[in-house]
Design a protein that fits this description.
By secondary structure, the chain is α+β, with helices and mostly antiparallel strands. The chain has helices at about 85-90, 130-140, 160-170, 175-185, 200-210, 240-255, 270-285, 290-305, 350-365, 440-455, 455-464; strands at about 5, 15-25, 30, 35-40, 45-50, 55-60, 65-70, 75-80, 260-265, 310-315, 320, 325-330, 330-335, 335-340, 340, 380-385, 400-405, 410-415, 420-435. Strands 9, 12, 15, 16, 17, 18 and 19 form a seven-stranded mixed beta sheet that branches. It has a four-stranded antiparallel beta sheet with strand order 1-8-6-3, with no helix packed on it. The chain has a four-stranded antiparallel beta sheet with strand order 5-4-2-7, with no helix packed on it. The radius of gyration is 28 Å and the shape is globular.
């Protein structure tokens, strides 16, 4: 007997459990070595897991939607379809009973339009949960995921749902489809008169005209019966996965520390001028513009080397100053707040930091970043300037000692050398854990950050 275990892999040093989002193969399907079997979601990312061997997926021991510890056996692969796996699979599951299969056995076929669950209504504006593969196909095919019914765990949209939506969508010309979308019309209710029954602009115009001029029916007015008060449905979003991790860490960062926030106003005129020069200098080489976050990461890393007590964490009853400087940037994604990390930021040049930051942010937003790329930072920056926020009180990203909040850059009146003028200024908000750092040392660190922004040429030549 040749049975190969399919293991829930440990995809990073911090990963302890994972949730299977979607099985891309069903029981009885042939699989090749290296072919994607399923997608797994950790507390940081959603990643694809490949088959460890060639053969047939004989048994799915852990169905989609279940969370299991890493290194758990979640499926079995055999060389042939006639091998007896009953005793072996039963021995892997508590109580000797295997988890019910997610398909109908070895003869099962992937779900298609005819086997999908009835479409459920999604309230307008509700968040759409979908797998990375579903989002990729939707982007390529121009599908609005808000119109797709999800059949994955908790109503999550998976790739087969997008395929089913595409197969059920009637043929129509681009003009007809765009006109129907603008009018909020379901093309499935329109009869097509084009070639092969294709819906044309004329068909949509006719349907709209018929809808605007309904037949008038005369009837004797009757007293109206009071209608029962309708209750709007409540949208319940499960607090699970990444959202649950964010919720837990935010509570811990606020309640398990002694947080204090210091704020200061900074003259960012020279900082803005520097960025403009760097944009012009490196745009062709990089293929993108140097951003303020790139500069802030390098600047903060430079300052952390001068103030190692800010690059620390509390371990038990001891304060540990970290030997390396790993700076994270808080990033808003469809899956929630994530913190991609630029490792050894103090040892890398500005252009290297810029390239690495964009690459890890892109992977984080696609859900393909490794857990280690979203953890292990020693200091975090959160920038809300793009949202026109001036100052705020950021929450510490445990187990770090502090987090720097950055506000928008705005022209404001200022007094320079006794004269009133207009300068570009910004607010910084440093939240620190008073258990690790006292107020005055933290203030000196923030003051240094302020001076480095006001005179950026002083440190840039040293760190390039």
């Amino acid at each position: 007997m040749a049975i190969k275990d399919v293991i829930l892999p440990k995809l990073g040093q911090t990963m302890e459990t994972g949730t299977i989002v979607e099985w891309l193969k069903q029981e009885g399907d042939p699989v090749g070595r290296g072919e994607v079997l399923f997608t797994v979601e950790s507390d940081k990312a959603t990643l694809e897991v490949e088959s460890p061997a060639k053969g047939f997926l004989r048994k799915i021991l852990v169905p989609a939607g279940e969370e299991k510890p890493v290194l758990t056996v979640v499926g079995l692969i055999t060389k042939t379809l006639d091998e007896d796996i009953l005793a072996y699979s039963a021995s892997l599951v508590e109580g000797g009973e295997a988890t019910p299969p997610t398909s109908k056995g070895s003869d099962a076929t992937p779900l298609g339009p005819e086997t999908l669950e009835p479409e459920t209504l999604r309230p307008a504006g509700a968040r759409v949960f979908s797998s990375p593969r579903a989002r990729k196909v939707a982007r390529e095919k121009g599908v609005d995921l808000a119109l797709v019914a999800g059949t994955g765990p908790g109503g999550r949209i998976v790739e087969r749902d997008v395929a089913a939506y595409l197969s059920s969508r009637p043929e129509a010309t681009p003009v007809a489809r765009r006109l129907a979308e603008q009018a909020g019309m379901d093309l499935r209710a329109v009869t097509g008169t084009g070639a092969g029954g294709r819906i044309t602009k004329v068909d949509v115009d006719r349907a709209l005209a018929e809808g605007r001029a309904p037949e008038v029916e005369l009837r004797v007015a009757e007293p109206e019966t009071p209608k029962p008060e309708t209750v709007e449905p409540v949208v319940a979003i499960p607090l699970s996965g990444v959202r649950a991790v964010i919720a837990r860490r935010m509570v811990e960062g606020h309640s398990a520390t002694a947080p204090v926030t210091l704020t200061t106003e900074v003259d960012a005129t020279e900082f803005v001028a520097l960025r403009e020069q760097l944009k012009a200098r490196f745009a062709d080489d990089l293929g993108f513009n140097i951003g303020y976050n790139d500069l802030l990461i390098k600047l903060a890393a430079y300052a952390l080397r001068q103030f190692p007590y800010m690059n620390a964490r509390l371990v038990g009853e001891a304060i540990q100053e970290q030997a390396k400087v790993h700076v994270a940037l808080a990033v808003d994604t469809d899956r929630g707040l994530l913190v991609p990390v630029v490792r050894d930021a103090d040892r890398k040049g500005l252009t290297e930091v810029a390239r690495e930051l964009r690459a890890v942010i892109e992977r984080a937003r696609e859900g393909s970043a490794l857990p280690d790329e979203l953890s292990g930072s020693t200091f975090t920056i959160t920038n809300l300037g793009i949202h026109e926020i001036d100052a705020f009180t950021p929450i510490i990203n445990l187990p770090e000692a502090a987090i720097l909040g950055v506000g928008r850059i705005k022209e404001r009146p200022a007094v320079v050398d006794g004269a009133l003028c207009v300068r570009k200024t910004m607010w910084l908000s440093l939240t620190f854990d008073h258990r690790l750092v006292d107020g005055a040392p933290a203030a000196r660190f923030l003051q240094t950050i302020k001076h480095l922004i006001e005179d950026p040429f002083l440190w840039l030549a040293v760190t390039m």
